[in-house]
Amino acid sequence: MPLSPPPFRPGQLWPDTDGTPINAHGGGFLYRNGTYFWYGEFKTGGEGGNRANVGISVYSSRDLYHWKNEGIALKVSEDENSPIVKGSVLERPKVLFNAATGKYVMWFHLELKGKGYSAALAGVATSRSPVGPFTFVRSFRPDGEMSRDMTLFADDDGKAYLITTSENNQTQHVSQLTDDYLDTTGHFARILAHQALEGEAIFKVNGRYFYIGSHTTGWTPNPAFAATAERITGPWTPLGNPCTGPNANITFGAQSTYVLAVHGKPGAFIFIADQWNPKDAIDGRYVWLPITLAASSFSIPWRSAWDLHVFDSR
Ligand code: DGJ
């Protein structure tokens, strides 16, 4: 009899291959040569644990169930003059591989130490290896515009984009990256204007783009917001809250961070979200759920346990 895979259990503690709970919040994912990499915020205990006391962690997996701790991909700096000094805020790391330069390029939301969330910067770091160490390159406001929550999306025509919460959390910007992915080009589209969205994630199915994000209520969960478009620069059509089942009105107590395409399974996409725990940041949990696709919309039904076989019948 084939062995059953260990199920995904949304909201439950998820140990890595050493038995320690995975510590990679606000995560971003990269698939490369048979291995998935999970980058995330390394949180520490207590309320101060949401600041970057350690850096960005990275885990690897070949099957999406078992994750090996690969250590700290980007370490905070001990230099008080560095924008990424210990005690700053490094959130929502996302990594792309740039084939032209051979570099892994990490973008993240950066807030300066002691300045709350007022700086609204993006940070960029690079490495020759997917597990780092990444070297901090610089921080800036992309296209000169505010940038807080963000994601990256590499399209199949070779272009890549930063999708970011701009204009003081009011409007999303889709900003085209330079060929080396180290900067923005100055070309950006304003999408979903005045909707006040964050926690953004993008995926593409049969040429159609899908967006999922949240509203802006700090660490407190709220209803998810979906949208679809034929071009990444818009216009985007709102689809409402795609979640169904218990606590669907608060995204199952979580906030979106990524949509992961399962390699080799067309149409298999996993919604990935964080159940934040602001009083004890390290104890935030992860919600992974399979996405149910329709022609020009999608839904995310709650499941307390599931495995990748749910995609077999699709
Ligand atoms: C919501 C954002 O999505 C998180 O990444 C974080 O910045 C919190 N706000 C801080 O309150």
Short recap of the structure:
This protein has 314 residues and is an all-beta fold. Helix content is 0%, strand content 46%.
What can you tell me about this protein's structure?
This protein is mainly β. It has a single domain (25-311), classed as Glycosyl hydrolase domain, family 43 (Tachylectin-2, Chain A), CATH 2.115.10. Helix content is 0%, strand content 46%. The chain has strands at residues 25-32, 35-41, 55-61, 68-75, 89-98, 103-111, 121-127, 135-140, 150-154, 160-166, 171-177, 184-191, 197-205, 208-215, 225-229, 237-240, 243-244, 255-261, 269-275, 285-290, 292-293, 298-301. The strands form six sheets. Strands 1-2-3-4 form a four-stranded antiparallel β-sheet, with no helix packed on it. Strands 5-6-7-8 form a four-stranded antiparallel β-sheet, with no helix packed on it. Strands 9-10-11-12 form a four-stranded antiparallel β-sheet, with no helix packed on it. Strand 3 and strand 4 form a beta hairpin. The protein is globular, with a radius of gyration of 18 Å. The model has no long low-confidence stretch (mean pLDDT 97). (2R,3S,4R,5S)-2-(hydroxymethyl)piperidine-3,4,5-triol (DGJ) binds at residues 26, 91-92, 149, 198-199, 218-219, 255.
List the defining traits of the structure above.
single chain, 314 residues, mainly beta, 4-stranded antiparallel β-sheet, binds (2R,3S,4R,5S)-2-(hydroxymethyl)piperidine-3,4,5-triol
Number of helices: 0
Spatial strand order of the main sheet:
1-2-3-4
Rough outline: globular
What radius of gyration results from the CA coordinates?
A: 18 Å
Extract low-pLDDT stretches: none
Number of strands: 22
Main sheet properties: 4 strands, antiparallel
End-to-end Cα distance: 23 Å
Order of helices and strands: EEEEEEEEEEEEEEEEEEEEEE
Total number of domains: 1
**Small molecules bound in the structure, each named once:** (2R,3S,4R,5S)-2-(hydroxymethyl)piperidine-3,4,5-triol
* CATH first level: Mainly Beta
pLDDT average, as an integer? 97
Give the full name of the CATH homologous superfamily.
Glycosyl hydrolase domain, family 43
* Range of strand content: over 45%
CATH topology assignment? Tachylectin-2, Chain A
Question: What is the annotated CATH architecture?
Answer: 5 Propeller
Helix content: under 10%
Coarse structural class: mainly beta
